[in-house]
Amino acid sequence: MRKVGLVLGSGSARGLAHIGVLKVLHREGIPIDLVVGSSMGALIGAIYAKGIPPDEMEKTFQRLTRRWTITSFFPTPHISGFVGGSMLERFLHTFLENTDFCDMKIPFTAVATDVETGEEIMLREGSVKKAVRASMSLPVVFVPVRYNGRIVVDGGLVNPLPVSIAKEMGADVTIACRTMPNPKENAKSIKLRMKNWKIPLDIFVRDGRIRLPNMKKMFFQTLSVMENEILDSNLQKANPTVLIELKGGSFKPADFHRADEIIRIGEETTERVIPTLKGILKG
After folding, report:
1. pLDDT by residue for the chain (283 residues), tens digit each?
2. All domains of the chain, ordered by start, with CATH?
3. Which residues are the active-site residues?
């Protein structure tokens, strides 16, 4: 019998769409034999692999407020990153508690990046909570995590959608879920803004019509461009059996309080590929 691997990619708040994907796969009886996740995909994947049903996940994320998001993601600065991660770790504990990888109901791997070497790190032993925290440690936003003697950060930097790892784990059929927004729509606008940076700073001060780009938006847009390039390259090599691409909806990276909308898009997108997926599994 063929082994089915589920691959959940990075995407910040858009990664909540993975819950919608899981709801449909669960409802349609699609078997999942192993799970691989990167960044936000590592969080949702770990919760599912532990045995927590998608509906229960949904209820918890629906309770998140804008205030919680701001408190968790933008509190006082830390020397190694803007957020120490204590709020995030408490949230992770509500789902993962002290779970070890050997306790998971479904084999699971989280992906992270060795910040010193740039290597892709597969996290699959020890504390699941710590592994997920490491996989979600976006540089400059979250403080890095020490994991088995290495300093690791967000897995999306090297493998935003780790299909290759699912295949290494023995998956014959890979279902990959891409939630990252495509930055191409904004590419021209971003390039124009970056050209403006070449103008001396005093011009920005004197001329009220010219303004510096919003640093936060530029950071996330630059990250999106970079990760999408890596993702496209990796997809060409790994070639998942079924690719679920989430399109539509204008969501900011910290829009976790819009869980209902994001999860619904995940459901609707997955429902469209179910006939194809069932055909592949029957074949």
Report:
1. 799 999 999 988 999 999 999 999 999 999 999 999 999 999 999 999 999 999 999 999 998 777 666 566 555 455 554 555 677 888 899 999 999 999 999 999 999 999 999 999 999 999 999 999 999 998 877 789 999 999 999 998 999 999 999 999 999 999 999 998 766 644 444 444 444 444 343 434 444 554 555 665 665 666 666 777 777 777 778 899 999 998 777 888 788 889 999 999 999 999 999 999 999 999 7
2. 4-182+239-282 (3.40.1090.10)
3. 39, 154
Rounded Cα distance between 145 and 88, Å, is 13
What is the C-alpha separation between 147 and 91, in angstroms, rounded? 20
Residue 39's region, left for phi above 0, alpha for psi from -120 to 50, else beta, is: left
- Residue 207: Cβ-neighbour burial (10 angstroms; 0-12, 13-18, 19+): exposed
Per the DSSP assignment, residues forming a β-bridge with 34 are 5
User: Nearest-CA neighbor of 35 among 196, 200, 177?
Assistant: 177
- pTM, to two decimals: 0.83
